[in-house]
Automatic annotation (TrEMBL):
This is Urease accessory protein UreF. Required for maturation of urease via the functional incorporation of the urease nickel metallocenter. It comes from the Bacteria. InterPro entries: UreF, UreF_sf. Belongs to the UreF family. HAMAP family: UreF. It comes from Alcanivorax profundi.
Amino acid sequence: MSNSAFFRLQQLISPSLPIGAFTYSQGMEWAVECGWIKDADDVYVWLDGLLESSVGALELPVLARLYHASQQQDLAAFSHWADTLLAWRETSELRAEECQRGQALTMVLDKLPEAAGWPELQQQEWRDALAQTQLAGFALACARWHVDLEQALNGYLWSWLENMVIVAVKLIPLGQSDGQRVLYRFSDQLAAITKQAMALDDDDIGSSSPAMAIASSLHETQYCRLFRS
């Protein structure tokens, strides 16, 4: 992977990327409110479960397929996997987040100097798929910039995990040092999660995260909230 591809990947996974990731807690706010998550160990257990049941089993393998569809200019496959990802979101809050991030990332890509040369950004069918999920724009950009697929998945995985730890730091509240220790505990297992995700067959892709779904649905009507629903 070239130096420019590496640094463009860093831009895509940066917390400063203006796609609104910091405004959502994916149910964690309610989980903290009701006492499911009280400290750093609880955060680790919560995120470890989501890595196994959702991110590694759904987002990463779908991202890989969107990447390949982008490389092959296969609109049908690209749209199928964008629709599939959105269909697995179990609450209106999670679906709204997915679409909001997708639309925001598309707007970011639109403003790039090279955007006029990307036919996907000029065709409505591609834009409809890009608006479904952040993963679609992420995959398109990585394919266009020749970011190595495994590194793209590693980058997305780290970005998701870092954002969720930042949410926990704000909500519990968790000290910055405790947040860093949570991230450190995951560092040895993340590469294996990516490799497992890349090896999944189409029929094995899916998500089963009932605790997150319950927390997200209850967060939609939570009386006092820091994060969007």
